[in-house]
Each structure stands twice: as C-alpha cells, then as structure tokens.
Amino acid sequence: MSDTSLSQLKDWQHTLNLGISSAQSNLAAAQAKYERLAKASKELAESLGHIETYKGNIDNFTIEDANWYGKEKTEFDNEYVEYQDSVKEYQDKTVVAKGIIDEAKAAAAAEVASCTTALSNLKSSLSNINTQISTAQKGGK
After folding, report:
1. 94 contacts 47 by C-beta, under 8 angstroms
2. What are phi and psi of 61, to 5 degrees?
3. Which residue from 65, 112, 132, 133 lies 20 to 30 Å from 85 (Cα-Cα)?
C-alpha cells in the first residue's frame, strides 16, 4: 500500500477517534438527561398519589350543619367549593406536567439509543480502519 493510502487511513483513524470521543460525550449527556427526567417523573407520580389522597380527604370532608348558620355557612360553603376546585386544578396541572415529562423521557430514551448506536458504529469503523492500517503496515515491511 502506498504511503498516501496509509496516511489517509491514519487520518480516518484520527477522525474516528475524535468522533468516538464526541459520541461518548453525547451519550453521557443523553443518559444524564434521561436520568433527570426519570427521577422527575417518579417524583411527580409520588406527588400525584399524595394529591389524590388529600383531594379524597377534602372531597369526603363532612360539615356539621348544626355548627354553621346563615351567612357564615354560605361563606364557608363558597370557600370550601373554591378550595376543592383549586385542588382539582392543581391535580390536573400536575397530571399534564407529568405527561410532558414522560414524553420528554421517552424522547431522551430514544436519544440514548441513537447515541449508543452511533458510538457502536464508530467503534466498528475504527476497528476496520485499524485492521486496514495493520495490514498496510505489514505489507509495507
């Protein structure tokens, strides 16, 4: 093999090594992103469980009508309904947020898979180039 071809193979080898380094960094970043999103999703799921418990307590709260009269009872009833509504709104928004995080988590998982494949392909290409370089060097001696 000519010196030019060997030189070209070594240039490809260098380029592949740079690509592998970049791919490893991209993979690490994608894995960290996935882990953060998975943690956030888990925490939101736990929070939703707590919210559901609290909401159930609020919805099942009983009021002794004998203790409330006229305007006080009406004001309390209005505030109570408003509180129930705000808890329900908070729960709904939390469900939406978890859905968004779960979608981002799925996208991050796909990104991890893509980075893993890219890294594997680069390593395979480097192995092939290394074999070609070894063959070229043996042939030149």
Report:
1. yes
2. -65, 130
3. 65
Provide the domain limits for residue 103: 3-140
Q: How many domains, in total, are found in the chain?
A: 1
- The model's pTM is 0.79
Name every residue whose Cβ is closer than 8 Å to that of residue 111 and which is 6 or more positions away in sequence.
Answer: 30, 33, 34
Integer Cα distance of 40 and 46 in angstroms: 10
Task: Kindly report, residue by residue over 22-58, the tens digit of the pLDDT.
Answer: 999 999 999 999 999 999 999 999 999 999 998 888 8
Q: State the DSSP H helix or E strand holding residue 38, giving kind and residue range, or none if neither.
A: helix 3-59
Q: How far apart are the first and last CA of the chain?
A: 10
User: Tokens 């509180």 sit at which residue?
Assistant: 83
Cα dihedral sign for 129, 134, 136, 137?
A: positive
